[in-house]
Amino acid sequence: MNILLTGGAGFIGRAVAMKLLKDGHQLVILDDLSNGQEENIKEFRTELTEFIIGDIKNETLLEEIFNKYDFDICYHLGASINVQDSIDDPRTTFNNDTIGTFYIMEQCRTHQVKVVFMSTCMVYDRCIDENGITEAHPTKPASPYAGAKIAAENMVLSYFYAYGLPTVVVRPFNTYGPFQKTGGEGGVVAIFIHKKLKGEYLSIYGEGTQTRDLLYVDDCADFVVQAGYSDKVSGEILNAGLGQDVSINELAKMIVQDDSRIKHIKHIHPQSEIQKLLCNYEKAKKLLQWEPKVSLEKGISKTEEWIKETYQWK
Ligand SMILES: NC(=O)c1ccc[n+]([C@@H]2O[C@H](COP(=O)([O-])OP(=O)(O)OC[C@H]3O[C@@H](n4cnc5c(N)ncnc54)[C@H](O)[C@@H]3O)[C@@H](O)[C@H]2O)c1
């Protein structure tokens, strides 16, 4: 198939691109490199049909790209992803995540291209059920990031209902693994491992009792790719996670194995924290035969290996 992947130079986009190429598709990546890096696609750049550095908010560019290629599917991952940034500067997140998605949808409507929209578990209200969060669980726009994604999800689904365009909304839970950034803008696993290796304290916001369901990046990419291949999921919302949550305190201990290396600091956005996130992925299992394959222990060790190899430790 001819496939467009937005955000393909980012952390998850990179893994999605590798799977799509492995499956033999013609792949175009569009990324403005606002958070992605050319380094991320170095391994497979020559296999791409085209790598376009550009913004999804540039409608003229989108028109050119969609006119040039006869796409079968658009995997739309390009977005502003940071909760804190969205609180500090909601305009950027809204413009990229909601308006940008609308521009993508308009092209997909005109050119009849199937859409896989990458949402997030951060749209959910806290988990109160031991069976975890199903797709029927209430949403809560606790941050502008969540609000912008919920708005975009609704637009994406409206194109299914109003125009019959095949669209699917995927909501992966917090994803981690190689190629995730290790600074403040990265994910908790990468940040903690990096701090451990540098001999620094692991800082936990608030009490550390908040939990996350952590999904290894290859499992996440498998899920996203499968959602695009299936005819059974049009108009659907689908979760993916490990189906097991861990508190941030437990996670820090798993990574550093030493309580004296962990400190608790004042939460910078307690009002936007989601206290418990536990994924129920039964729907994805039933419709896509998808299940996570990488345990948290294995995933952490693979991530640590990558960080060790990638950064210079002197
Ligand atoms: N990391 C997670 O835990 C997680 C979990 C669930 C969902 N998601 C979603 O998955 C997607 C990828 O996230 P990620 O963690 O790989 O983050 P990332 O920042 O590494 O990837 C996003 C990519 O989109 C690009 N981008 C941003 N704005 C753009 C624009 N206007 N035009 C073109 N490209 C643009 C960035 O340069 C980056 O390469 C996002 O939609 C995110 O919301 C992430």
Structure, described:
The structure is a single chain. With 314 residues, the protein is α/β, with parallel strands linked by helices. It folds into two domains: 2-175 and 215-241, Rossmann fold, CATH 3.40.50.720; 177-212 and 244-283 and 293-311, Alpha-Beta Complex (UDP-galactose 4-epimerase, domain 1), CATH 3.90.25.10. The protein has ten helices and 13 strands. The chain has a seven-stranded parallel sheet with strand order 3-2-1-4-5-6-11, with helices on both faces. The longest helix has 22 residues, at 90-111. The radius of gyration is 19 Å and the shape is globular. The relative contact order is 0.14. The mean pLDDT is 97. The chain binds nicotinamide-adenine-dinucleotide (NAD). Residues 6-7, 9-13, 30-36, 55-57, 77-81, 96, 100, 118, 120, 172, 174-175, 187 line the site of nicotinamide-adenine-dinucleotide.
Q: What overall geometry do the principal axes of the alpha carbons give? A: globular
**Per CATH, which architecture of the largest domain?**
3-Layer(aba) Sandwich
Average pLDDT metric: 97
The domain tally reads 2
Could you tell me which ligands this complex binds, including any ions or cofactors?
nicotinamide-adenine-dinucleotide
Quick tags:
13 strands; two-stranded parallel sheet; Rossmann fold; binds nicotinamide-adenine-dinucleotide; alpha/beta; UDP-galactose 4-epimerase, domain 1
Secondary structure layout:
Blueprint: E1 2-6, H1 11-22, E2 26-31, E3 50-53, H2 59-68, E4 73-76, H3 83-88, H4 90-111, E5 114-118, H5 144-163, E6 167-172, E7 175-176, H6 188-198, E8 202-205, E9 211-213, E10 215-216, H7 217-229, E11 237-240, E12 245-247, H8 248-256, E13 262-265, H9 282-288, H10 296-310
Parallel strand pairs: 1-2, 1-4, 2-3, 4-5, 5-6, 6-11, 7-10, 8-13
Antiparallel strand pairs: 9-12
The structure holds nicotinamide-adenine-dinucleotide.
Nicotinamide-adenine-dinucleotide binds at residues 6-7, 9-13, 30-36, 55-57, 77-81, 96, 100, 118, 120, 172, 174-175, 187.
